[in-house]
Structure formats: structure tokens, C-alpha cells
Design goal:
By secondary structure, this protein is an alpha+beta fold. The protein has ten helices and 18 strands.
Length: about 400
């Protein structure tokens, strides 16, 4: 049976509506981008959350601000009729308002429209996705499609610490997701594709304590922490297994004081990516078991798996198959992809909740100076999002999804 949506809101009508709203959508993205919101600046990110909350109220949302000490606040906004049945009547739209860019970035990285793109810090990752969600909700509200049972309630949850691993918001994400039948994540697209799987992520810090000594007078009395760290780096880097989807990348290192002093301290930070959930505990044990070759040195390892993998589950496949069918009604082929990056969708997928990711904007340069969104795709993808929200469980779909892996 083919996937359909509420017959009163055909896909072509949604696309026409999204195109009419494109100027307002672009304006909203720019207002959100200009509200700079680095993860580590609570006042700034809270101001951006407040702006989004005001917009949600204007759309008729039932808004709650969850205040967090030491981290930015969370926005929870509910739209449509309250689901009186099970989680199946509720969809979670999941996104974040924090960015990696410090205050003042707009002075040298202006938010502007040119060459068919909207440029600026946080445009792609992921304020455009947030604005697309608001626009899709507005379209369905105007069409009267959010007050019809059984699949009517939409929960929009916007966090403010995703870029630093969601240390404060994870419990709230998992609690709200457990009340929902499905999760749509507003992160940027993978090229043009939705993301049906993601690698799990881990972060480790390795600290080596050696014995300081004069490099010329007392060389033999020293035990170089830097040399020991070099051995550890070779060991850890050797754990990369591309066939199994495991990468261990030493991204930052430091140590020593002077060239004529045998280093008493050195450290490294390691990024770990995994595809299989079972590899998480196994790799954590390998890090914990690291031992120094030079017994005069000591090793200390901290960190662990931050996000479990987002698996390509049967429920996620069904969501993707429906999205692909609706995209076909709009005249384009939607692909599904795996990403090497993690998102808050990893948490919801690990709970067994069908999760579809990468439903935000198309563009390039996330976390880079050329961060930008391709304007021509905004209306099309907003219409697709609205279509999925209007009737995401209206029909059964095949269980098999062609496997396609692309680089993050």
C-alpha cells in the first residue's frame, strides 16, 4: 500500500504553500542566526531559546522552558490536539539552537543572501532546520491538519548543548522521546539524503606522567612522557578497523615545557567512532587497559562513549520508505545515507524509537567559514517535512532499505 497523507493536504499543495512562505522562512532563519548562541555562553543561547519560544507561542504552541543551571535552557513546544491514546499519536521534532561559533563571529562572517545561498554561522547547523520545522507546523496549522486524531500532536524540542555532547539535555531528550512514536531530527541533510543511520561517538583523554630531568646533564634519570605518549598514540591509532566501521583518531596533543627538559607530562585527545553498539564497551575496555611501556611513567584515561550508534532499524526504514514515497509525489528521489557524525538522534534511536535524521537544510560548510544553505531546496524539503508530519503512519511500507554509505 502506498504511503499517503491526509487527503485534504496533497503534497503539491504543501509545496505551493512552502514556496509562498519562503521569504518568511528566510527571514526567520536570519533572525535566528543573528541571535548568536555558542554552547558555552548561557546568556546568549538562552536569548536565542527565548526568541524561538516567542515564535512557538505565536503559532499556538503550548510552551515550556526547561531551565538548566550552567547550561542553556531547553524549549519544549507542543502543537495540535493532545494525544489521548499511545505514543503513536505523537511525533517528536528534535533540534538544537546552540552553535560552535563564539560571540562576535557575525562581524567577520556576515549573515547574507548571495549566489543562491544563505551564508552565516549556524545557518546549516542547524538554525535553518529549526525554521523549517516552524514553517511546516505553521502550514499544517493553517490547513487544519493538526487537530485530527489519531496522529495529531507534534512535540518540538530544541536543546542548547548538542554541540558539546548534550551533557545536560540528554535525559530530557530521552524522556520526551519515550512519549513519542517517532522522531524527526532537523540536522542538515547528507548531501541531498536523509540520514537513516549514524556512527556512535566517543571521546577519550589520555594523560601521561613521566619523570622530569635535564636533557643534557641527567638524561638517564628522566622518563619522557612525550615518548610514552607517542607509543600510546601508535597503539590507539592501530585500533582503527575500517571494515568494521571503527575509527580512532588522535586529534589534539600536548606536553612538555622546554626542549632541554625531559617531559614530565603529555596528553592526547582521541575521537572514536563505531557502527556496532557492542563495540562501545569493547573499545572502552581497550582504553582502560592501556599500560605504559616505560614503567616509570603512569597513564590515566578518562572519557568514554558519548553517543551510541543510530542503527538502521526496521522502524527507521519504514519512516524512510514513506518519506521516499512522498518525495516521489514532489518529483524527486530521496536517498538514505549513513553519517559518520553523531546527533541527538543517536539517543532516541538507541531507545528503540524509529528515528529519521538529516531532515533539515541542504548546504555545506557546517562548523566552517563557508557555512551556508542552498535556498532552492528549502521549500521542497519543508513541504516534505510537513507531509510526513501530516500523516507519518498512514500506511505500511516495505522493510528493506538499499544500503548506501556516504562520508560525513
Amino acid at each position: 500500500m502506498a504511503a499517503t497523507i491526509d487527503s485534504s493536504v496533497p503534497m503539491r499543495a504543501l509545496l505551493a504553500g512552502a514556496r509562498r512562505k519562503e521569504p518568511a522562512l528566510l527571514d526567520l532563519i536570519q533572525r535566528l542566526v543573528r541571535a548568536e548562541s555558542p554552547s558555552d555562553d548561557k546568556a546568549a543561547v538562552d536569548a536565542c531559546v527565548a526568541m524561538a519560544a516567542k515564535h512557538a507561542r505565536g503559532l499556538g504552541g503550548r510552551v515550556k522552558i526547561h531551565r538548566q543551571k550552567g547550561f542553556g535552557n531547553l524549549l519544549e513546544a507542543r502543537f495540535g490536539a493532545k494525544s489521548k491514546t499511545s505514543a503513536e499519536g505523537r511525533t517528536l521534532l528534535l533540534g538544537h539552537l546552540d552553535t560552535v561559533w563564539p560571540l562576535g563571529t557575525l562581524k567577520t562572517m556576515r549573515c547574507r543572501l548571495s549566489e543562491g545561498r544563505l551564508w552565516g554561522p549556524g545557518t546549516l547547523d542547524m538554525k535553518a532546520g529549526v525554521a523549517m520545522a516552524f514553517t511546516a507546523i505553521e502550514m499544517l496549522t493553517e490547513a487544519g491538519s493538526l487537530n485530527r486524531e489519531p496522529h495529531s500532536e507534534i512535540v518540538l524540542l530544541l536543546t542548547s548543548d548538542e554541540e558539546i555532547g548534550s551533557p545536560a539535555s540528554r535525559s530530557m531528550i530521552e524522556r520526551v522521546a519515550a512519549e513519542c512514536g517517532r522522531v524527526f531530527v532537523l540536522e542538515p541533510a547528507q548531501g541531498l539524503a536523509y540520514k537513516t543511520a549514524r556512527k556512535g561517538t566517543g571521546n577519550f583523554r589520555i594523560e601521561v606522567t613521566g619523570v622530569a630531568a635535564h636533557a643534557g646533564v641527567d638524561f638517564e634519570k628522566g622518563a619522557s612522557a612525550i615518548r610514552e605518549l607517542a607509543r600510546v598514540i601508535e597503539t590507539v591509532s592501530g585500533w582503527t578497523d575500517l571494515k568494521r566501521g571503527i575509527t580512532a583518531s588522535v586529534g589534539v596533543v600536548g606536553g612538555g615545557t622546554k626542549s632541554n627538559v625531559i617531559a614530565a607530562h603529555a596528553w592526547a585527545e582521541v575521537d572514536l567512532r563505531i557502527v556496532r553498539k557492542a563495540d562501545g564497551p569493547r573499545m572502552e575496555r581497550k582504553f582502560a587497559a592501556l599500560k605504559p611501556v616505560d614503567k616509570r611513567c603512569k597513564l590515566a584515561v578518562t572519557g568514554g562513549i558519548n553517543r551510541p550508534p543510530m542503527a538502521r532499524t526496521r522502524g527507521t526504514v519504514k519512516l524512510y520508505q514513506q518519506a521516499r514515497a512522498l518525495a516521489g509525489e514532489l518529483g524527486f528521489q530521496l536517498e538514505g545515507a549513513m553519517s559518520g557524525g553523531g546527533s541527538d538522534g543517536n539517543f532516541t534511536s538507541a531507545l528503540g524509537i524509529p528515528t529519521l535524521d538529516g531532515m533539515g537544510a541542504v548546504g555545506e560548510g557546517a562548523h566552517a567559514r563557508h557555512e551556508s544553505v542552498v535556498v532552492e531546496h528549502l521549500a521542497l524539503r519543508t513541504a516534505l517535512l510537513a507531509g510526513l508530519l501530516a500523516g507519518c503512519n498512514s500506511a505500511g511500507t516495505p522493510d528493506k532499505l538499499p544500503r548506501r554509505t556516504t562520508r560525513s
